[in-house]
User: Fold these one by one.
Assistant:
Number 1:
Amino acid sequence: MALRKLGKDPESPSGGSPTIYLDEEKDSYLVQGWKVEDDERLGQMDIPGHESVVEIPRRMVQFFLEVKKDDEAPDV
């Protein structure tokens, strides 16, 4: 299984920034982000025990949109 790196947070100064990947085989995204540990925020979500939550900055949505544009491009 090969993951396609879509992009890293363009404003991350350390290089260890949040990153978005596409698993084309499973047709799903993998998101590396900041682990959410704030009990107040977690309490507002219904998270099953086999799932977790990570946070990414809003500016990273552009990477999801790029894949959508790729999918809509006509075959040549």
Note: The two ends are 27 Å apart (CA to CA).
Number 2:
Amino acid sequence: MSDKYENPTSDDYMGVVMGIIMSGGNAKGLAFQAIQQAKAGDFEAAEQSLTDSSNELRSAHDVQTDLLTRLAQGEKIGWNLYMVHAQDHLMNAITFKDLAVEVVGQEKRLQALEKK
């Protein structure tokens, strides 16, 4: 078993951290884009942006799952403020995306009412 994630300053470790941060940032940006698209009445684009956001979150979640599996198998995983920041960034993106789904739905409902 390789402990390639034991050293929190290694390139492998920092690659994982940056991957989580980037996926979280992309997911949040896509969720925000979905809200803007919904406000403009482009619900098809908004739904696609939400799907793309979910895919980014899945990518980051897969990295998390891999780390947890390695930890459960006895591999040493180092933790530092970078990883804490990455996890925080990801959780905020998940929350934002969940709220964006609700906002897009409400916007769809409001625009349908305005047309009546």
Note: The chain is about 80% helix and 0% strand.
Number 3:
Amino acid sequence: MYAVLIDAPEAEAARATAFWSAALGVTAEPFAPQPQFTTLHEALPGLVTAVQAVDDAPRIHLDFETDDVEAETARLLALGAERISQWQECQVLRVPGGHVVCVLPVETDPETFRAQANVWP
């Protein structure tokens, strides 16, 4: 797993960011390349944690990082997920229980990814 995203409706994103930053005792910093994301630094050690402004309902979703988006998506679909959309290179899935996950290409540096990645048979 790569990230935990706190999705907040666009109109509430600033307030949600202020709340989560204070509640978790971490700093919040806008992510310049994609302004809908605000990073909550070190909120969950080892994972990217961010508030994402969305045009949708509030929720929390997880991001799975992989070097083969197609294969990881197929693996999760075989486990019972269903594909609901695509955003850029990411596949958006709904998993059993109703939660949303995204499968995205490698974002971390390659050496760290190789050292921490699960390898599936």
Note: The mean pLDDT is 94.
Number 4:
Amino acid sequence: MLGLTIRWSLEGAPEGVEDELASFVAETSHARFTGMSGLRWKTWRTVRGEWFEGSYVFATSEAREEFQRTFTEGAAESPGSRMIGSSPILIEACDVVAVAEGWDGFEASPRC
């Protein structure tokens, strides 16, 4: 499977940025990516005070390449960059080796 990781450092970011990012994901970003053509799924992850990232899995290499190209071109102006105060430190294509769905199943949610 065709993955993409976009990660921002939270070192030096404004106090409370993690909560601001979580609200943005819940109120805006989740809806943008739900049902997005070419995207299998996206996960937002954070470690408070360290980093925030989007982890994507795409259906085709063309979809991943187009998203990566477009995002990279505007990365400095992206909502995450504006909230954090800096551009991503990592924009990296990768391969997802496997996915397992546990007994309790998959849950799509704008806020966990």
Note: Residues 17-33 form the longest helix (17 residues).
